[in-house]
DNA sequence: CCACGCATGTAAATCGTTACATGATTAA
DNA sequence: TTAATCATGTAACGATTTACATGCGTGG
């Protein structure tokens, strides 16, 4: 069985409206993109599985060979149980912090580049979320929209936190650089005396 | 070859001080725990690989059969190149937001439970980081400690952001509940008229 | 002497992405 | 007509965790 998380995402997507696998991938990428992702390789097998179990129904698509999937009553019930059981915390992996932790090897200037990149990404993220907020039609899916706004807000809080941290960090790194904690040179005199 | 990320973590750990595979696992879990994780199944094969490539050296351990690994000069040089190339962004997956997005199916009260849990975790995280900050001996690894503090700070910013978001969200969910957007009942009258 | 912590390693299982093969439909 | 987009699915690969098998050393 595909992971419960993927099943949740797929059934959840269909709880908004029936759609094809392709459309689901697009919907997840654009709407859930700031906190979730699924690939075709997950979506199609999961849909097939859910169909076998009678949790989704395959209907006629708009073109030959395509099908729109829809939730069955059993599927909606199953989604409720999936949503109810506690989210499994995945092990944290932050590439920026990993590099920064070993920053002594790299030196303050290179670390500052790293942090500036992270800051830029957060800034763009923030702008993107603000755009989504204003662009989106709130009347179309009025019942779902308050919950959607909560996830947007989460993204904004996280991005602002990253920006604030980055600014503090850049100041710290500047003083570190001034104090002369330079990066280790490519060929260290300690290693080849 | 094991992933560059894992190699970076392993070489990085040895850049602080030589240690056994077992000790490395402990060090990563306790010190890098709030932003990174590695399991034995990754660490041992990676160490063997790096040894083959002459990037780490296996020395005598304190007991029979055990070995302490240390960085070679080539290993240190390789670590610098690994740290320099840009962090690969992994696809986001936030189980709490996934559940909240489909909150309409679950109802505002159950969503509030979810958010309260997330808030609790963030609060504990914050307390844990504060404890680490005060407990740790800054003189032992003085050269690495400023960079370590930057990662602690990142965790604190993120946790505070989660707490602030959770409080806002709980207020919003309370008004939603008051307006009567209850969860869908276990047996919907729409599905069985 | 025995339970627990230190220590190493492998095998299997899980989870997920990427790339490919294939074809229909539509807009230029 | 041809390129782009919609659409489905599979195969291969990669990354990572978990569980297991094994044994040394030490404190109670």
Description:
2 copies of one chain form a homodimer. With 193 residues, chain A is mainly α. Chain A is 63% helix and 5% strand. Chain A has 8 helices and 2 strands. In chain A, strands 1-2 form a two-stranded antiparallel ribbon. In chain A, a hairpin with a 6-residue loop joins strand 1 (56-60) and strand 2. The N and C termini of chain A lie far apart (59 Å). At the A-B interface, helix 1, helix 4, helix 5, helix 6 and helix 7 of A face helix 1, helix 4, helix 5, helix 6 and helix 7 of B. The structure holds a DNA duplex (28 and 28 nucleotides). Chains A, B: Residues 93-173 form the Transcription regulator PadR C-terminal domain. Chains A, B: Pfam families: PadR (PF03551), Vir_act_alpha_C (PF10400). Chains A, B: InterPro entries: Tscrpt_reg_PadR_C (IPR018309), Tscrpt_reg_PadR_N (IPR005149), WH-like_DNA-bd_sf (IPR036388), WH_DNA-bd_sf (IPR036390).
Please tag this protein with its features.
homodimer; 193 residues; mainly alpha; Arc Repressor Mutant, subunit A; 2 domains; two-stranded antiparallel ribbon; 8 helices; disordered C terminus; DNA-binding
